[in-house]
Amino acid sequence: MKIHIDDRKHINRIQEEFSERYPFLKIEFFKHDHQSGEGSPLGDMIPSDSLLGHWRSIHDQGDIQIDHTMTVAQVEQEFQQKFGISAQVFRLSGDVWLETTVTDSWTLEEQNDTGKEMS
Q1: What CA–CA distance (Å, rounded) separates 15 from 13?
Q2: Count H helices, E strands: the chain?
């Protein structure tokens, strides 16, 4: 899956593209970065209707290539390193969205399959 990133794109469009491929996962964006295995304060979550360009520190446009073999940590690092924005992947567990901090080393496929089983 390829997601195009530029300053004029709304965050909710990126979230929709991500969730189309991984229906039991969601991606959120935050004002500050975090270390692998750490969570992000919910108060730092960027509103979904925001323009991406307002929050990025690196304003290059381009594509992010995401596939099912990537770990959550790799996806989050890719957003931070290439585009200067902090991302956090969440997994559905029943009717609750959990930050995947403890399982950042799992692949997106493993996370999505676990979310499917838990829902």
Answers
A1: 5
A2: 3, 5
Sort 108 into a burial class: Cβ within 10 Å, 0-12 / 13-18 / 19+.
Answer: buried
The CA-atom distances, in angstroms, between 96 and each of 26, 51, 56, 61, 119 are 12, 26, 28, 33, 9
Whole-number pLDDT of residue 58: 94
CA distance 112 to 10: 24
Per DSSP, which regions of the chain are E strands?
2-5, 25-30, 62-65, 86-93, 96-99
Measured CA to CA, the distance from residue 75 to residue 91 in angstroms comes to 14
Q: What is the pLDDT of residue 38?
A: 66
Task: Look at the pTM and tell me if it is higher than 0.90.
Answer: yes
Query: Is residue 72 packed enough to be buried (19+ CB in 10 Å), middle (13-18) or exposed (0-12)?
Result: buried
Give 51-77 pLDDT, tens digit per residue.
Answer: 999 999 999 999 999 999 999 999 999
Contact in structure between 82 and 58 (CB atoms under 8 Å): yes
